[in-house]
Inverse folding.
């Protein structure tokens, strides 16, 4: 796993190039940014903006302070059920790590238990732990699958995310109607039959009103 290394490297080089900004408050940095964008941070409409942006960013990245193991604690149950469990159409909102712009869409999660199940309401919470961080869609998909695999060691896990990225829609190529689909299949979901069953169940119009 090269990810922790990459993260610590990034933190390391950020301190190396520190030009005094570490002393500045987040709000001061956002005020400075507003000025650099060509705005007057002192005009009335923007006075409270740095405070709001700081709060908003903290909320949108709160997943860094949440622990998937803790969220699932007390929500794992012994159960003999061994058919596919699917939670589909879970809404996600995340921020792409390349542009810090939102991407949003739906996650479908499925697993086939092997003696243990997860309380259903915990699955959207688990998704949120990873979505509320700077992400790329591929890693988000994989992290959700791995967390479930790790928590209950089922026969297999499948995760599909369909999302639209504002960094594609608002800038650059402006492909406004394109969506990106990623999937992670673990264990028996790597077998064609199981995977196809999952995908066909996910594609059926649900009762979610979407
Ligand atoms: Zn992006």
């Amino acid at each position: 796993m090269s990810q922790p290394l990459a993260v610590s490297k990034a933190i390391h080089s950020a301190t190396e190039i520190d030009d005094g900004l570490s002393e500045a408050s987040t709000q001061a940095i956002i005020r400075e940014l507003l000025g650099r964008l060509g705005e007057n941070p002192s005009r009335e409409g923007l006075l409270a903006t740095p405070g709001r942006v700081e709060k908003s960013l903290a909320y949108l990245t709160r997943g860094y302070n949440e622990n998937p193991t803790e969220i699932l604690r007390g929500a794992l149950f012994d159960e003999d059920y061994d058919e596919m469990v699917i939670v589909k159409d879970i809404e996600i909102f995340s921020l792409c790590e390349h542009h810090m712009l939102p991407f949003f869409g739906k996650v479908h999660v499925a697993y086939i238990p092997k003696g243990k199940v997860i309380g259903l309401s915990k699955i959207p919470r688990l998704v949120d732990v990873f979505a509320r961080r700077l992400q790329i869609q591929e890693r988000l998909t994989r992290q959700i699958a791995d967390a479930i695999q790790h928590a209950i060691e089922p026969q297999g896990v499948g995760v599909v995310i369909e999302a639209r990225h504002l960094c594609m829609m608002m800038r650059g190529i402006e492909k406004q109607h394109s969506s990106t689909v990623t999937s992670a299949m673990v264990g028996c979901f790597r077998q064609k039959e199981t995977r196809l069953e999952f995908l066909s169940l996910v594609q059926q119009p649900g009762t979610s009103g979407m």
Q: What stands out?
A: Confidence is low (pLDDT under 50) at residues 1-9. The radius of gyration is 20 Å. The chain has two domains: 5-60, 70-202.
